[in-house]
Amino acid sequence: MTLIVNLVEQLQAVGRRSELFNISLWCIFGFGVLKATTFILRTLSLIFDLFLLPSVNYSKYGAGKGKYCVITGASDGIGKEFAFQMARRHFNLVLISRTLSKLETIQKELQGKFGVEVKILSVDISRDVPENYTAIREVCEGLPITVLINNVGQSHSIPVPFLATEEKELRDIITINNTATLLISQLITPIIVSTAASSKCRGLILTMGSFAGLIPTPLLATYSGSKSFLQGWSNALAGELRDKNVDVELALSYLVTSSMSKIRRASLMIPNAKNFVSSTLKNVGRRCGAQERFSTITPYWSHALYHFIIEETVGVYSKLVNSINYTMHKSIRVRALRKAEREAKKD
Ligand SMILES: NC(=O)c1ccc[n+]([C@@H]2O[C@H](COP(=O)([O-])OP(=O)(O)OC[C@H]3O[C@@H](n4cnc5c(N)ncnc54)[C@H](OP(=O)(O)O)[C@@H]3O)[C@@H](O)[C@H]2O)c1
Fold it and tell me: How would you describe this protein's topology in the membrane (predicted)?
C-alpha cells in the first residue's frame, strides 16, 4: 500500500500538475483498492465455504417432518447418490427415472435402511409427450414436497462437431436437459411454494449444471448450450422465488465418475458421486467456487478452486480457455473413435 502511495506521489511530482491529472491518479488508485478488496473478500468467502463452515441444516427445508424431495434421474450416478443422502437426512422421496427395475431396487434399499417413504416413477423423459407430465403430476399430487432436485441430464455419446451431431442426439439433449427440467419445475414449484407457506419452512430447487455450461465447450456444443441455458433460467427463477421462501440453486460440476462421464476411477479433479453430492448438500446456499455468481454453487473443493482461478484470471469466455477446451475434447474424440474401432473389430 505504501509503495502505491509513494508511486502516486512521485507521479504527481513529475507529472503535469493539473487537477485532472490528480483526479485520474486517485481514481486509478481507488479502483485498484476496490479490486483488491473484493478479491480478498471473495477468497476469504471461498475458504470459509469450502473448509470452515459446518454443513447446512436441512431442518429449514422440513427434514424429519414427513416432507418430500423429488429427484429426477435418480436411478444411477449423481441422482442415486442424492436419493441416499436426502433419505439419510430424513426426507421422503419421489424418484423419477427411466429403468423401473433400478428404481425398485433403490426403493427397497432406502425404505429398509432409512425408514422413509419412497415413491417411484419410470418415464422416458426424452419423449416430449404430455403423458409423462400427467404421470408425474399424479405421483406428486397431495404430497408435502419441499425439495426438487433437477438432476436428469444427457450429454453427447462422444465429443462430436456440431455439424456432425445426429438430430436425435441433439433433440434428446435439449428435451431432457431443458424442456423436461422446465416442465417438471412448473409442476412441482407450486407444490413447494404452498408446502413452504403452510409448514413455515423453506423450499429448495437444486438443478445440476456443468462446467460444460460454465465454459463454452467445443465438440460438446449442444450439451454446453443446454447447461448454459440452465444457468440463466435457474438464476432468473431464483429472483422470482426469493420472496416466496424458495431457494433456487444451480450446482456446477467438472467431471464426476459415472456412466455419463464414462470415468470409473476417482482422482483429485474427478470425485465419485458420493463425495460430489456430499459436498453439494453440505454447502447448498453458499457459493464455494462460484463466488461471482448469484444462486450458483461449485461445491467440490478441486472444482471450486479451478472455477475460482479461471474466473479471477482469464475468464470463462476467453479465447485461451476456449482453445484449451477444444484441444482437450479433440483428443478425447480421437481416443473414443479409436476405442469404438477396436470394439467393432472384436465383434
Ligand atoms: N458425471 C459428470 O461428469 C457430470 C459432470 C457435470 C454435470 N453432470 C450432470 O449431472 C447430472 C447427472 O449425471 P450422471 O453423471 O449422474 O448421469 P448418469 O450416471 O448417466 O445417470 C443419469 C440418470 O438419469 C436417468 N435418465 C437418463 N436418461 C433418461 C431419460 N430419457 N428418461 C428418464 N431418465 C433418464 C438415468 O436413468 P436410467 O438409469 O434408467 O437410464 C439415470 O438415473 C446430469 O444432469 C449431468 O449433466 C454430470
Answer: Single-pass membrane protein
